[in-house]
Amino acid sequence: MSAKPAARTEPLRIGIIGAGTMGRKHAGILGRNGSATLVAVADPATTALAEEYGVPCFAEHQTLLSSEKLDAVIIANPNGSHVATALDCLSAGVPALLEKPIAISYSEAAKLVKAADSATTPILMGHHRRHHPAVEAAHGLIARGELGDIVAVSGTWLTKKPDSYFDQAWRRMPGAGVMLINLVHDLDLFRHLCGEIISVQAKTSSAARKLAVEDTASVIVEFESGALGSFIISDSAVAPWGWDQVTEDDPAFPFNPSLSCYRIAGTRAALEFPQLAKYYYQGISDWNHPLCMSYQATGMGDSYSRQLEHFIEVVRGSSPPAVSVMDGAQSLAVVEAVREAALTGRTVQVSDITG
Ligand SMILES: NC(=O)c1ccc[n+]([C@@H]2O[C@H](COP(=O)([O-])OP(=O)(O)OC[C@H]3O[C@@H](n4cnc5c(N)ncnc54)[C@H](O)[C@@H]3O)[C@@H](O)[C@H]2O)c1
Fold first, then answer.
1. Mutate which of 43, 60, 311 to test ligand 1's pocket (most atoms within 8 Å of Cβ)?
2. What distance in Å separates the CA atoms of residue 291 and residue 287, rounded to the nearest whole number?
3. Contact 180, 326 (CB under 8 A)
4. Is the CB of 79 under 6 A from ligand 1?
5. Where are the beta strands (DSSP E) in 132-261?
6. Tell me, what's the pLDDT at 9?
7. 1 pLDDT above the threshold of 80
8. Based on CB atoms within 10 Å of each CB, which residue in 39, 93, 107, 167 is the most buried?
9. Sheet of 123-126: strands edge to edge?
């Protein structure tokens, strides 16, 4: 049963759908935010999180939506359940923060985009990294033209997940894999910072873990502007280069402040992320002259807490979602194009996926 938006002074009543790793993380973030409170959980397999927080637990999200007085929900169930769950939230008039990826196929995502388009209930896509202070600062710097026209972008996400991560069956099956679980974050940020991606080439490999899903991918992207980018990703390589190790965004991952995960180079300057070290020439601009370097100041905070603060504004009606389902679908379309490119060995236009 949906409720009218709560008065400004009352904490929002939030339910969590899917009480695994991410549901638990969201519960912790809610617990540290005075403007929202966890009131119920839905999960078919575990009551542990609900018991820990002393709130009711339902086996099915439909029961949660119909029997609890909710201002909003956070959907953190496996990728393949996202669209059906979000559609039920729209029908119930309950705003949702929907974990990424929006869906496991673009055609499925398109159904949600269509439904969200004609609904007044908002959905915020959980591309949390967009709320990181360094992303906001980089976005502003690029939008102001400080790098000139973007020429080339390079990104890395190389790390070794524990083997036990794959004990959960859905993480070994089509609909998961390093591209839908991790690469979608990075390509979403490439789009956010550097503009739309129009075509891709790629290779994928499952040689390291030998699962039904890929563990490694190498991707070339072409941006609408004509800029080119490359990305290398693996969940099976012992290496320190990736968002999680270099941003200090999540204390679960040991932090290395001296390494970066993205390099963005333009006609006037280059940017190393997340340090936001900007390299540029003073005077003559060519490789025979020394580069200067300066740092861009950023705000404070982690992206998950800032995402929740934004979601609260969305639920209260004071802001539209910063990341819409349309945006989530477009980032998924790029991943789907990558998959197609790896399967066929051909260049794939993202518009071939989106139609
Ligand atoms: N934004 C991020 O940084 C981030 C990080 C990790 C995972 N994720 C996303 O969060 C989602 C959950 O991932 P996870 O690692 O927490 O998975 P998980 O396997 O740890 O937890 C999923 C939970 O959902 C429950 N579940 C299964 N079907 C359900 C249903 N129909 N309704 C309600 N609950 C159901 C399972 O019992 C399990 O407890 C995935 O979509 C994943 O891609 C996002």
1. 43
2. 8
3. no
4. yes
5. 150-158, 197-205, 216-223, 228-234
6. 75
7. no
8. 39
9. 57-58, 36-42, 12-17, 72-75, 96-99, 123-126
Between CA 336 and CA 353 the distance in angstroms is 7
- 119-145 pLDDT, tens digit each: 999 999 999 999 999 999 999 999 999
Question: What phi and psi, each to the nearest 5 degrees, are found at residue 296?
Answer: -95, 130
Amino acid residing at 76 = A
Average pLDDT, integer, range 79-87:
98
Q: Report how far ligand 1's centroid is from the alpha carbon of 173 (Å).
A: 14
168 CB near ligand 1 (under 6 Å): yes
Q: List the chain domain ranges.
A: 12-129+305-323, 130-298+334-350
Mean pLDDT score, 303-318: 98
**In which order are the strands placed within the sheet that holds 262-266?**
292-295, 277-280, 269-273, 262-266, 150-158, 228-234, 216-223, 197-205, 348-349
Mention the CATH class of domain 130-298+334-350. Answer: alpha beta
End-to-end CA distance of the chain: 37
Which position has the token pair 């940020």?
189
CB of 81 within 6 A of ligand 1: the answer is: yes
Residue 100 Cβ < 6 Å to ligand 1 = yes
For domain 12-129+305-323, give the CATH number.
3.40.50.720
pLDDT at site 8: 58
Handedness of CA 166, 73, 101, 87 (dihedral sign): positive
Residue 4 has pLDDT above 90, yes or no: no
Q: Looking at the predicted structure, is the pLDDT value of residue 220 above 90?
A: yes
Which tokens in the block code for residue 42?
A: 């839905």
The full 3-state SS of 69-133, as one line of letters, equals CECEEEECCCHHHHHHHHHHHHHHCCCEEEECCCCCCHHHHHHHHHHHHCCCCCEEEECHHHHCH
- Is 102's pLDDT higher than 80? yes
Whole-number percent of the chain with pLDDT over 70: 98
Q: What is the pLDDT of residues 233-290, one digit of tens each?
A: 999 999 999 999 999 999 999 999 999 999 999 999 999 999 999 999 999 999 999 9
